[in-house]
C-alpha cells in the first residue's frame, strides 16, 4: 500500500511540475537571479540568461511562457533585447516583463516602445510580480 501511495504522490508531483510556468530571467547580475529564484521557485520553473544575446538563443531553444528582462545590461541592453524578441517570429508572442531600478516615466515609456508587456520597478512586491506574470501568460 505504501508503494501505491508513493506512486500517486510522485505522479501528482510530476504533474504539478509540468503545470508550472517556465520563466526565463535575464540579468547580468547572477545575484539578482538567485534572489528571485529563491522567492519564485515554488511558483515557476526558472531558467537564467546573463545577457541579451544569450536571452535570444535561450528563448528560441526553450520557448518560455514569459521573460523577466533587466533593462541595464552591458552590450545588448533590455530595450534592444526586447525589440529583437518582439521582432523574431519564434519569440514575438512571449510576454516580456521589464524589471528595472529605472523608474522615470521616460524609462517606462521606452520599455513599452521597445515592446514589453509590463514594466516593474525595483524594489517590487513579489506578489505583484507573480500576479502580473500570471495575468500576462493567461491573456
Task: Walk me through what this model shows.
- By secondary structure, the chain is α/β, with parallel strands linked by helices.
- It has a single domain (20-138), classed as 3-Layer(aba) Sandwich (Rossmann fold), CATH 3.40.50.
- Helix content is 52%, strand content 19%.
- It contains 6 helices and 5 strands.
- It has helices at residues 2-19, 30-40, 52-62, 78-86, 105-114, 126-138; strands spanning 21-26, 44-49, 66-70, 96-100, 118-121.
- The protein has a 5-stranded parallel β-sheet, with helices on both faces.
- Strand 1, helix 2 (30-40) and strand 2 (44-49) form a beta-alpha-beta unit.
- The longest helix is centred in the N-terminal third of the chain and has 18 residues, at 2-19.
- It starts with a helix and ends with a helix.
Largest sheet: 5 strands, parallel
CATH architecture: 3-Layer(aba) Sandwich
Give me the CATH fold name.
Rossmann fold
Number of helices: 6
Instruction: Please state roughly what percent of the residues sit in beta strands, choosing from under 5%, 5-15%, 15-25%, 25-35%, 35-45% or over 45%.
Output: 15-25%
Helix content bin: 40-55%
How many β-strand stretches?
A: 5
Task: Tell me the structural class.
Answer: alpha/beta
Report the principal-axis shape. Answer: globular
* CA-CA gap between termini: 43 Å
| CATH domain class | Alpha Beta
The secondary-structure element order is HEHEHEHEHEH
What is the name of the CATH superfamily? Answer: Response regulator
Task: Flag low-confidence runs.
Answer: 5-18
Q: Looking at the chains present, what oligomeric state does this protein adopt?
A: single chain
Amino acid at each position: 500500500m505504501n508503494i501505491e501511495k508513493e506512486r500517486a504522490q510522485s505522479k501528482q508531483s510530476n504533474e504539478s511540475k509540468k503545470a508550472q510556468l517556465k520563466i526565463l530571467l535575464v540579468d547580468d547580475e547572477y545575484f539578482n537571479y538567485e534572489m528571485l529564484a529563491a522567492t519564485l521557485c515554488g511558483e515557476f520553473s526558472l531558467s537564467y540568461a546573463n545577457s541579451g544575446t544569450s536571452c535570444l538563443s535561450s528563448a528560441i531553444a526553450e520557448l518560455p511562457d514569459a521573460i523577466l528582462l533587466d533593462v541595464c545590461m552591458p552590450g545588448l541592453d533590455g530595450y534592444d533585447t526586447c525589440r529583437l524578441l518582439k521582432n523574431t517570429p519564434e519569440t514575438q508572442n512571449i510576454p516580456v516583463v521589464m524589471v528595472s531600478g529605472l523608474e522615470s516615466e521616460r524609462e517606462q515609456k521606452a520599455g513599452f516602445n521597445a515592446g514589453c508587456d509590463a514594466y516593474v520597478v525595483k524594489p517590487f512586491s513579489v506578489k505583484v510580480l507573480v500576479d502580473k506574470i500570471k495575468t500576462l501568460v493567461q491573456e
